[in-house]
Amino acid sequence: MPAAIYLLVGLLIGAAFGFLWGLVQGRSRAPVPDERLANELRQQLAQREGDLSKLREQMTSALRAQAEAQARSQAAEELLADLKRLTRTRCARPGRPTTKPWRISGPLSGA
Predict the structure, then answer these.
(1) For the chain, which residues make up each domain, given as ranges?
(2) What global pTM score does this model have?
């Protein structure tokens, strides 16, 4: 066989062994992970969780204030209805001058 063929076969075998050796060495060494992105994402997650807890607290206090306002409004409407009823019964008693009952105006009077 001519020397060029031996040289070519030797180069091909050497390239194959070099490729296999590089493949084995490359897989055995794991790349060092870059923790900067993970740390940044953890920081963003912590910030979002803090914001979320603040918003939950605000929503809870707003719902509590709304419930208190509705309770006050209902109590005021009941008081107004009692006052109207009392005024009508007092004005309708015999022996009393018949005057018009008081006219209550405002946002809770229903007028």
Answers:
(1) 40-90
(2) 0.48
